[in-house]
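To: structure subgroup
Subject: Chain for Friday's discussion

All,

I'm putting the inputs and outputs inline so they're searchable in the archive.
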Amino acid sequence: METKDKDCIINALLAEMQAIQSYSDAARIIENNEFKRYFKLFESNEYSHKEGLKKLISKNFNSKQMEELDIKINGFKPYRLEEKMDAKTIINKALSGEEIQYKRYIDCAGFVQDADTKKMFYAFADNEKLHAQVLKKMLITLSSLKTEKSGKCKICGNPIALNLGLCAECAKKELLKNNQKS
């Protein structure tokens, strides 16, 4: 595996570590239960990306590269969302992170040579794109939210507190289905 490939994996791993922390913070801070469930779901999904990247690392990095990576990981301190942040700020930060990570995975997939790694990067990019779509719907819903706007899940038809299209459970199943394709 080339240096550029390894750098891409390291940067993606650090970004996933940041996303996990941010979604954990967001789920703790935000008051809306539907948003809270999505943030917990996204945190779990980002964790699975992190684990996939760690498997790539263990397969492709030599002991010296692993030592260098350990130093980077141990020195990495993800920023924390502030308790006083409002929902719109939290969602916008998450959306920005998802868009950056989507582009990173697409770029990485474009130059890696290993077919399995390429496939995994594209699958992760699809997940990040889905997260971004849900976050955009959250922003729209938030801007029109007075008390609660009801809706129905497009998959199971169960009522949901906010009209985001999917309930958190169906969104989780869709993400798992996408991950199994990779």
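Points worth raising on Friday:
The mean pLDDT is 88.
Residues 115-144 form the longest helix (30 residues).

D.
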